[in-house]
Design brief:
The chain is α/β, with parallel strands linked by helices and 376 residues long. The protein is built from twelve helices and 14 strands. The protein has a seven-stranded parallel β-sheet, with helices on both faces. Catalyzes the NADPH-dependent reduction of N-acetyl-5-glutamyl phosphate to yield N-acetyl-L-glutamate 5-semialdehyde.
């Protein structure tokens, strides 16, 4: 008689948000994961089916406030942090605190000693917030308006763009998953800049996203009558994903560069489309860009470069972990236009987080992410 391998015991912090719900939806079909803890302070005490009826009947634990969790005995293997920025830092600092003293901020949890007993050194953290994405903590302070609370952990955090940092992710204990806008832009542009197929100057990223990208908090700007039957830009010349994009593109190119990035909110639930305008390097054509991207991603399970003339659309990737990239020649000589689509809640967030978790536990990268897009 053979025994089943021990399952990975997972916690989801912030399970009542859209990314938390996507983590649940995807992980409940993961053959090697058991969800043993879900927190949601505003929904504490409720069952998940009360908050998300589509997740009923899955045998999941009730939602809890972080401060009410009885940590001893949980024996967690992985913690997904789907919390707002500035919230994750203190919590993750407690999880991975090298001296084992638990949370530094006792307002988050009143029993740091109990927490230290429950969390062992082998626990891994996959953070979906922005707290560990920016390598320079001064840049974080500039763009997020708060001092970083865990600068030592920032030094070891691995940027979780799977296709670019796969080997580093495998050995990490803290992975900072990229934002949805950076994921689409970086998968498209990093290989081209690294190979100097395009110039570093004049990159324009025109991005569109569904309303779920703004989170589930009650905000006037997200009301149906505010977003339906229209489209509008936001964060013009000031969106916090800009330094994240520039950080990784500069690293690929080998010197600092800047991009023009403008996001727009469109009246759909999920999905993201970026139209990216670039200047070609000398003697390069749009066909050269397409061929190079196809070579780079030919063995990737989730990033596909479409054939010439095919136009990627958000309806082609809805609900999946796919990213599709199209390349087109501009009518203006010396320029090209790239169109990239992904689901902001899956490849742009929770799906990529699970992809990274699979790597961290030496599992097939595609586990629980095999679903095809939902169409129509």
């Amino acid at each position: 008689m053979t025994t089943s391998p021990k399952k990975i015991r997972a916690a989801i912090l912030g399970a009542s948000g859209y990314t938390g719900a996507e983590l649940i939806r995807l992980l409940v079909r993961h053959p090697h994961v058991e969800i043993v803890l879900m927190t949601a302070d505003r929904k504490a005490g409720q069952s998940i089916e009360t908050v998300y009826p589509h997740l009923a009947g899955l045998g999941l634990p009730d939602l809890m406030a972080v401060g009410d969790v009885e940590w001893p005995g949980l024996e967690l293997d992985v913690v997904f942090c789907a919390l707002p920025h500035a919230t994750s830092q203190e919590i993750i600092k407690g999880i991975l605190h090298e001296t084992g003293h638990g949370f530094v901020d006792e307002m988050i949890i009143e029993r740091p000693a109990d927490y230290a007993n429950a969390i062992k050194g082998s626990v891994k953290v996959v953070d979906l917030s922005a707290d560990f994405r920016l390598r320079d903590t001064d840049v974080y302070t500039k763009w997020y308006g708060e001092y970083h609370q865990a600068p030592e952990l920032q030094k070891e955090a691995v940027y979780g763009l799977t296709e670019q940092y796969r080997e580093d992710i495998k050995n990490a204990r803290l992975v900072a998953c990229p934002g949805c806008f950076p994921t689409a832009a970086l998968l498209t542009l990093m290989p081209l800049l690294a190979a100097q197929k395009i110039k570093k100057d004049g990159i324009i990223i025109d991005a569109k996203t569904g309303v779920s990208g703004a989170g589930r908090s009650l905000r006037e700007a997200n009301l149906f009558t505010e977003v339906s039957e229209g489209m509008h830009p936001y964060g013009v010349a000031s969106h916090r994903h800009s330094p994240e994009i520039e950080q990784e593109l500069s690293k690929s190119f080998g010197e600092d560069l800047y991009v023009t990035f403008t996001p727009h909110l469109v009246p759909m639930n999920r999905g993201e489309l970026e139209t990216i305008y670039v200047n070609l390097a000398e003697d390069q054509t749009a066909d050269d860009l397409r061929n190079h991207l196809q070579d780079c991603y030919q063995d990737e399970p989730f990033v596909h470069v479409v054939e010439e003339g095919v136009m990627p659309a958000t309806r082609h990737i809805r609900g999946s972990n796919l990213c599709l990239i199209g390349v087109f020649a501009d009518r203006v000589p010396g320029r090209a236009i790239l169109v990239t689509v992904l689901d902001n809640l899956v490849k742009g967030s929770s799906g990529q987080a699970i992809q990274n978790m699979n790597l961290m536990f030496d599992l097939p990268e595609t586990l629980s992410l095999e679903q095809a897009p939902l169409f129509p």
